[in-house]
HdeD family acid-resistance protein
Amino acid sequence: MSLDTQSAFTENLKKLPLKPGHLITLGIALVVLGLLALAYVVGATLVSVVYVGVLMLAGGVLHLFHAWSVKGWSSFLLWTITGLLYLLAGVFAVVNPLEGAAILTLLFGATLIGTGALRLWIWAQNRAQKGAGWMAISALMSLAVGLIIASGWPDNSVWVLGLILGVELLTQGWAALLLGLALKQKMNP
């Protein structure tokens, strides 16, 4: 990049509503939360299941409000049943987080297996494309992780979701932290 282009880039970067300090703070907080989740994977699993349960409860209430506000619709019954199912699933997850973790872990493993198989099929249809090997690698990784989760189920249900949450928080934290540091350096050369 030429000096003029770099200078213009830096000036345009300063005009953006980005605050490197906010990203750095967010990154540090996410790294700390990720490390805590990895240190206490069972607790992180239970907290995440309860969190999902609370969201399902809120979704159920919203579905029921919607159903009752559109009584003239022919789909009133469908919206009501959907809301009640959300409420039941939410109550189940909040009251029985261990059983909820088992169900969510099985669904997660099945989703990875299905996604891996689908990506493998897409790769087979497009293997002549440049870079298609990456699709095959991605497919095999998803398939392998899904099979590992499924083969350890239900015993692994108490820690898989917490482990995934911890790794996700950690990687997002490092990404935000490093992006914030890079922006800070770029904005203040």
